[in-house]
Fold each of these.
Amino acid sequence: METRQKKLNGILLTLLMALVAISVGYAAMQSVLTITTNQVTQSTQTWNVGFVPGTVEGTAAGTSGTGRSCGTATLTAPSVTVASTTLSKPGDSCTYALQIRNSGTISAKLSGVVPGAPTSTSCTTTEATTSASAQMVCGNITYKLAGSANGSTAFPKGTTINASGTTTAYLILSYTGSEPSASQITQNSGRFTLTYDQN
Amino acid sequence: MRRHNYRLWKMAIFCMMAVITLMGFGYAAMNKVLEVQVASVQQSDVVWNIGFSGTNTVTPLSQATSSVTCGTPSISPTSATLGASHLSASGDGCRYSLQVSNTGDIGGKVSGVTTVVNSNSSGYTCTQVSSGQLLSCTKSGDPAEILVFPSANGSITASTLGSTAAATIASTYVAPLINSTLAGGANTNVYLYVFLRGTPASTSFSGLRFTTTVSYTQN
């Protein structure tokens, strides 16, 4: 009995010494490196992109004023609403210069321009690409969001507005049918949705 | 045990929903959406319609005692067919006054004028002067000259023209017709002149047919 107890004690002691030896060995196989930072500062950043508020009158073009009138565009930071507009014959158009400003400290990148067809109107829509403007053709009327007043310069995806910078998008509404309008037709609530991401 | 598992599942689903919501807020905060909306675009019913009204006046012009015969026009909205003109002495002419009406909503503008020969068995050679604004027909050795041209001026006579060169007549009396405008609902007159300058060497000539075109575009 006593011998057995002694044996047991011996085994326990051996195990304990082995455990300590492993720990010491493990510790000896490690090198602990410590990195200490002195100071981490968070600067205030603001994310703020929107239209420059105000009103913009449409620039009319076409052979004559018959059957043509350009509604006024009202701009708030997140949205533009263009009042009722009339276009009735080939060549008629109304163009609006819409200024977009980055009032924040983070550069903004245009990630998409998506046309939205007028209510209950069949349109062929084209989203902006990296080289072309967004536009939609709804019967005799074409809606386009371009980078120049004559529509020849694109307002493409991927363009950026630096902090405190501005850019201008041109909304061009034009009568692109080949014949004057033979009847009274109204298209309501055509729209473009622009999405800017942090750059 | 079963109640305990149920509580664990509820906790797990709640945590997932919270994470998804926070991700959504995070995404929304990282982009800006701007919208441009056009309240309405209307197309009004507009009419484009310019043509001859049918009202016309024919005025024989003669400086001598010779008789001048001017044809009777036959008018449709887009064409006026003039009857035969008989001119025998220098200074003889015919003035055809043709009323043009704009019965549409859209103003029009004369974009071009041209006279061309349809057929010519007169023995005279016809030349388009000033890009066809005026037609001049002559024959070698023959003092006669036949002039055909449209104008907005309703007071031209042989005396007015005198011996003015054809090109000068075109620039003075025909060119002003180009770019003249006609508003919706308005009328105007276009005058077509046929003149004989100089007495023909031959006793008579015939067989000259021509067409004068006055083009209107939307203004």
Note: The mean pLDDT of chain B is 86.
Amino acid sequence: MDQDKKVIATEAMKALSEIEDSMKTESLVKDNKIEFSFEDIKYRIRKPNFDETVEIEEAKRKKYVEYIKDDSYMFRKQWIDSYKKKGIDVEQMEKQATNAKLEMEQIMLRLATSQEPRTIQELKSQILKLKDEQYSVSMQITDLLTYSIEDQMNMYSTSYLAFLVFEKQVVDKWEKVFTNYKEFINSSTKPVHMALYYISFLMYS
Amino acid sequence: MIESLRNLAKSTKYLNLYARAKELSGIRLFNNESDFSYMQTLFMSYLETYSSVYMDLAMKEENISQEVIEDDIRLESYLLWKRLVKDKKKSDKSDKQTVSENALIFKRK
């Protein structure tokens, strides 16, 4: 009897968790703004308006010039060449990821037309293995090239965008949380981390 | 998050809303009518995908079943097969029409 109660309780918790998850996801798609609360303050991030888009492009252009002038910053290609001299072949790793993807697609085509349960399970597990391999190699490449000018520019433009569209509710109005980018980037509060997390849900990278 | 989005897109509630929103102009899926976010665009593409596979299921198309729809890997495989094999077969079928010389307005001299 106790065991039955435990099973029912576990199932109920799982169902509640699924409902909560569904409601949270719904709140992220229902609007093109994302609101969240922290310590009784309501925050939001939204899509940038035209003026803000122009401001982001100008900030990116200035940052890009900074990176170009600084010899310690290298482009992706330069990093790849440097790694090759140290025996790390990033291009080969990229080929490995592509080959895993192509092999996976061939197995997926076989899975699509399979009816036999054992074959289906076997093909699914082969696909999962290849997905893991592809993901693992992609993560390695990302880590190796994270300091490239291209990746640094991506991070800069995401964080600058987050600074521009990050607002808090003051009485009935929405106001910018930070007056300048330096203040935003030097703040390591939870709302800032949440803003940086949610910005990727609003914008295409 | 992507998995949650897919689960939401294949829910009865949103598939029905999506079908009604396509038919009736007064029904909206989102608070905003334009300037959609990345999540909203992704969600719409999942809605379209699930709506399309349920249509395939209703039409008794080959290689699709409720079991396939509920299994993300099998569903992805089905969609890939549909795109590369099934739809390619349809477009390869020859619809060439030849026009006889008599039908030409500007005939060669």
Note: The helical segments of chain A are 2-29, 50-69, 76-85, 90-112, 117-144, 149-165, 181-186, 190-202.
